[in-house]
Amino acid sequence: MNIYDTITGIRSDIESNLPALLTAASLTAFDEYTEGFPKDQTKKICAVWYSEHRRNIEQSFIFTIQAQLTGVQELETYQYLDAIETYVKTIFMSENYGYVSSQYDCMLLTNFNNGQCSVMFEVTLTEPLDDCD
C-alpha cells in the first residue's frame, strides 16, 4: 500500500469510527477530518499525516493523529485523548494496512493564550522482514 492510500484510508477509518466514541463520552464532534496539517485554527479538526517510514530488520510506517481542539479546556481535552486512545487501542487494525502490530506515543500540547489544546498520537505500524525481503 502506498503512502497516499494509507493516510487517506486511516483518515476515513477514524472519521467512520471516532464519532461514536465521542458521542459515548458526551463530547462535541469534530468540525472536520483531514489529511495533512489542520489549516483552519478556528475549528476542531482531527488530522492524520505521514511522519516517516523505515526498512531495516523490520518495516515500519509512522503517522500522526492530531486532535486540534479549539476552545476546549485542558480537562475536557483529556476526554478527547481517552476517546482517541480507545480508537487506537481497540478499533484501529494495523492489518488493514499491511502491518502486523502497532504502538503509539501520545502527548498533549496546550496554548493557554489562544484557548487551544492539541492531542498528538504518533502511531508506529511494524512488520518484521524475513530473509526473502
Description:
With 133 residues, this protein is of the alpha+beta class. The protein has one domain (3-128): STM4215-like (2-Layer Sandwich), CATH 3.30.2000. Helix content is 30%, strand content 39%. It has helices at 3-24, 74-91, and strands at 32-35, 45-55, 58-70, 101-111, 116-128. It has a five-stranded mixed β-sheet with strand order 1-2-3-5-4, covered by helices on one side. Strand 2 (45-55) and strand 3 (58-70) form a beta hairpin. Helix 1 (3-24) crosses helix 2. It is elongated.
Write the layout of secondary structure elements.
Layout (H helix, E strand, L loop, with lengths): L2 H22 L7 E4 L9 E11 L2 E13 L3 H18 L9 E11 L4 E13 L5
Parallel strand pairs: 1-2
Antiparallel strand pairs: 2-3, 3-5, 4-5
Helix pairs in contact: 1-2
Ends distance: 16 Å
Largest sheet: 5 strands, mixed
Side by side, the strands of the main sheet go 1-2-3-5-4
Flag low-confidence runs.
Answer: none
Quick tags:
single chain, 133 residues, alpha+beta, 2 helices, 30% helix, 39% strand, elongated
TL;DR of this structure?
This protein has 133 residues and is an alpha+beta fold. It is built from two helices and five strands. The model has no long low-confidence stretch (mean pLDDT 92).
